[in-house]
Design brief:
The complex is a heterodimer. Chain A is mostly helical. Chain A has a domain of 89 residues: Helix Hairpins (Orthogonal Bundle), CATH 1.10.287. Chain A is built from four helices and no strands. The relative contact order of chain A is 0.11. Chain B is mainly α. Chain B has a two-stranded antiparallel ribbon with strand order 1-2. In chain B, helix 14 runs antiparallel to helix 19. Classes of the chains: A mainly alpha, B mainly alpha. The interface between A and B is large, with 47 and 53 residues.
Chain lengths: 137, 507
Amino acid sequence: METALALTIGVLVAAAAYLLLARDLPRALLGFVLLGTGANLAILAAGRVGTMAPPLVASGAEALAAGAANPLPQALVLTAIVIGFGLAAFALVLVMRAHAEFGTACAEDMDEAERPDEVPATARPALAPAAARKEAA
Amino acid sequence: MRQFLLASPILIPLVATAVTAMLWSRPAAQRRVGLVAATLLFATTLGLLGEVLSGGMVVGQMGNWPAPFGVTLVVDHLSAAMLVITGLMGLAVAVYAMGPRAEERDRAGFQPLFHALLLGVAGAFSTGDLFNLYVWFEVMLIASFGLLVLDRTREQLDGGIRYVMLNLVGTTFFLLAVGLLYGLTGTLNLADMARVAPGVENQGALAAAAVLLLVSFGAKAAVFPLFNWLPASYHTASMPVAAIFAALLTKVGVYAIIRVFTLVFAHDHALFGPLVGAIAMATMVVGVLGAAAHYDIRRILSFHIISQIGYMLVGVALMTPLAIAGSVLYVIHHIVVKANLFLVAGAVRQMGGSFALARLGGLWATAPLLGLLFLIPALSLAGIPPLSGFWGKLVVIRAGLEAEAFLLAGVALAVGLLTLYSMIKIWNEAFWKAAPEPAPAAGWTRAQRLATFAPIVLLCGVTLTIGFWAEPFAAFSIAAAESLLDREGYIAAVLGAQPTRLAEAVP
């Protein structure tokens, strides 16, 4: 079981890495979702996959019966799923807004935020004599 | 009372977020609630600091679950200082956000998002549990996403995408590391993890998980080579947002690095010390060179955030008491100064009409007070005595020399000089040179002017106080460093004298 989980996590993370390298933003977003799933499975595996007995305290008992599944990773994964869903939803809306605004979902075609600065006249390097002559002419 | 004080830095922003969100259609009421909440937050964090100074570390078990099982809140010297600075910044930016264009911002939802951001930051500084830290990171992150694209301009959407994508991957790495560490140590409580970590059999796997944490915290703190998202996005945000981002977001990453690497992975310092040292040097140099190449005030300041992060990592790189004290002092000084520079940049934009140095000029003649208020944080950032940055740099460099890390100390000195170059560049272009065209009349009301200048003057006052009266701040930093290095004390304070053995209970 652990081997199968480890292999699954490996495949998920590899696929996520491939997708995240894409310039197409929806693909990168899918990569993030896959990476999150891989991380969630890793937490589940880290909590030791043992019995399938549900971690419920029997009525009248004070503690969990021995051999019950570990409830903590399940709680963690549940939290992580909710957070991951929220983030993915926000990112999707952001990509949609950007697509509507720029007419493309390709990261390379969006260059609004990192335009070259306007260089003040005093900070411009002195022109080489040939270029200065050209400028004057 | 102590328990109440401990939880209030989280409760106050939480309530403020809820109330301001419910007042969605009434921006004026939101602003009033926001200001009250920010003032209360600052007051309670000061109370908490007093409590830590008089009675030592404040520890609370949420929901009354004993230590390694429930979520623990721990506030020691470093956390208390960070919380006070968070409160101060929250107050300063809450006032500043009443300045020009307040109405538009509040209609777009600035207030709830701003308090949600403070909630995430305060939670991250108070928690003593690794998974809980992840949750606070996410609270902070999702609020920052919303704040960054508040105006929904093309520039912001583009910057937002860069910011969101890299941070999503960074936090997933954090989640992966949490899973691996839980598998290795069987616990999520930081104190319990610190107790178990040196005895873990598979130290290689532990180090791998630590590197994953370093990558994710490093991406948050914008260290080399994971800094690209910061200069691509920060300058697009509106000024109050950029100021609170510059003050707090990267510093949460720095705080997490300091906390985790002095507590949980301290036994592996031989591996991580040189690694963090190399990262620190590269971060300083890359940041300052990036700033030298830019001619937009916001972009210069954004690159300087990166460069200064390097100084804060020196403590973790050297792990001597003096070096860690230097890091703590540097973080305190830097947050105040950096946020203030962004606030000043907003005022420059309002009075000079632009952020581009090419279009600015002559502000010293038209607004000498603004020039003075720019010089104080700018020279402090560069480390000119007797301002606060000088003491921060002095302690960091002296710690480097004492630990015989001469290269690190030399790089820190050279970067200080280049910082001065960038600051003088802004001064020459925006304030000193003749205005390229007559500056447009500053169209703002008296109240807006007051809201803009009051926080700037306040933060300048804090910078001057740290500069001229450095002794208590230095003594506090040394106490914080000693408490950070006293791992046994932290573990005992959180787990009690006889720790419950959770680690061994896991099959």
